[in-house]
Amino acid sequence: MTAVSGRRPAAPDPAVAGQAAEEDLRALFGQSTALFASLAGPAHLVETANPTFFASIGEERFRTGVALVDLMPELAGQDFIALLDQVYRTSEPQTGRDVRVVLGGGPHARETFFDFTCEPRRDADGDVTGIRVLGVETTQVKHAQRLMVEHRALLEQIARQAPLTEVLDGMARCIENLAPQEVLVSVLLADPDGRHLRHGAAPSLPDFYNQAIDGIATGEGVGSCGTAAHRREPVIVTDITTDPFWDDFRHLADQAGLAACWSTPILARDGGLLGTFAMYHRTPRVPQDADLALTRVFAGTAALAIERHHIEQAKASAEARAKSAHDELAKAVRAERELRAEAEQRAAAAAELAARVRAAAAAQAAVPHPERCQLGGPSGCTEAAEIKIADSWGDSAWGCSTHVEEAILNVRSVFIASEELGGLAAYLNR
To answer: Which residues form the GAF domain (predicted)?
Structure first.
């Protein structure tokens, strides 16, 4: 039979238990994508932190045993330090969602977002000795959400047929605002023959630069954009000062303060060249996966906007041609109607004249054949009336051969009328 001791097990030491819990947290978050930091005292000394924490704030700041505000001076003017002070003072945990934190300063400043929980650390007596920070960086998620919102707005602009310049300018500004580092966006539009590139949008590039490259040729070695348009594939120039593609434009880039240029061709669905989409940088830089993804998204959006613009232009041109043809047809119809009316008027006048001639001829036919010449004038003529003459107006007279010859020479459109032969028709059918 085994003897059982009557002593109770010793109560766990709170300090030892707390230290064990900290070690468990370090082990748990050591390789996690979530960030973890243990801060001590009211100055929030960085006692320990996992690699994710230092990766988020900048691995060059990998130090412990210093106050958080000394490690990250940019936090002094932000709300995060005040939140840590509140947790330390009140011993109440605090949580934050999509909290904006600007890391770094000057040209290297970058906007980040975090979801986090700040919990008080206590000693054996329950007093607050520090703060544990657990969180995850949500910058990419936040940027993706903003990207979706901006992209949807661009698609709505395209759908409502906003002017192409407005869409491209808005797209360029959107990318410049979304990019984690400073970037200057340019969109060039291809001529119909694909041989030259024209200014489309570049809201942040200087005017002299936009004017200088407006109309550049597409071809091998013509900067990043001319080469990308020629090759129909992206061209990444990470350092303009040394790349041979920029030999003819290096002075412009230097004057504009540009050090890198990544250009992507904008292609239609049938593979035709629509333009180029370029991202410029102030310092030499190699693109990251996020940069390339952003480029692909907006190059596709630009292609949609440009193709839609071309369709609308073709539609407007076709409508203008149809209207012009319609106007010309209407003009021809009006002219035809006027000619027809004029012809009808002339036909009516001719019919009226013919009727008058017939009436005059009938009246003359009813007059008896005179015995003496009627063409002698006021003094008269006693010669026999042997020949009848007439004119186109239906007037006729009889005269002698002498006066008939004189009348034919002096009076327009006078002809000899032969009653015996019955006129021209009788002569033709003789």
So the answer is: 150-316
Do 279 and 374 lie in a common domain?
A: no
Contact 91, 123 (CB under 8 A): no
Query: The whole model's pTM is what?
Result: 0.52
* 183, 231: one domain: yes
Residues 129 and 155 in one domain: no
Q: What is the 3-state secondary structure (H, E, C) of the chain?
A: CCCCCCCCCCCCCHHHHHHHHHHHHHHHHCCCCCEEEEEECCCCEEEEECHHHHHHHCHHHCCCCCEHHHHCHHHHHCHHHHHHHHHHHHCCCEEEEEEEEEECCHHHCEEEEEEEEEEEEECCCCCEEEEEEEEEECHHHHHHHHHHHHHHHHHHHHHCCCCHHHHHHHHHHHHHHHCCCCCEEEEEEECCCCCEEEEEECCCCCHHHHHHHCCEECCCCCHHHHHHHHHCCCEEECCCCCCHHHCCCHHHHHHHCCCEEEEEEEECCCCCEEEEEEEEECCCCCCCHHHHHHHHHHHHHHHHHHHHHHHHHHHHHHHHHHHHHHHHHHHHHHHHHHHHHHHHHHHHHHHHHHHHHHHHHHHHHHCCCCCECCCCHHHCCCCECCEEEECCCCCEEEECHHHHHHHHHHCCCCEECCCCCCCHHHHHCC
What CATH code is carried by the domain that includes residue 209? 3.30.450.40
Range with the poorest average pLDDT among 59-68, 172-181, 207-216: 172-181
User: 344 lies in a domain?
Assistant: no
Same domain for 118 and 210, yes or no, is: no
Closest by alpha carbon to 280, among 182, 191, 418, 408?
182
- Average pLDDT estimate for 101-115: 77
Mean pLDDT of 52-66: 86
pLDDT value for 430: 41
Is residue 380's pLDDT more than 90? no
Q: What is the pLDDT of residue 336?
A: 87
User: Mean pLDDT, to the nearest integer, of 231-254?
Assistant: 94
Q: Is the pLDDT of residue 2 over 50?
A: no
Residues 161 and 275 in one domain: yes
Q: What tokens does 104 get?
A: 């770094």
Taking every pair of Cα atoms in the chain, the longest distance, rounded to a whole number of angstroms, is 191
Residue-level pLDDT at 265: 93
Task: Pick the more confident residue, 58 or 213.
Answer: 213
Query: What's the number of CA atoms in the CB half-sphere (13 Å) around residue 216?
Result: 28
Over 50: is that where the pLDDT of 30 sits? Answer: no
Q: What is the pLDDT of residue 12?
A: 44
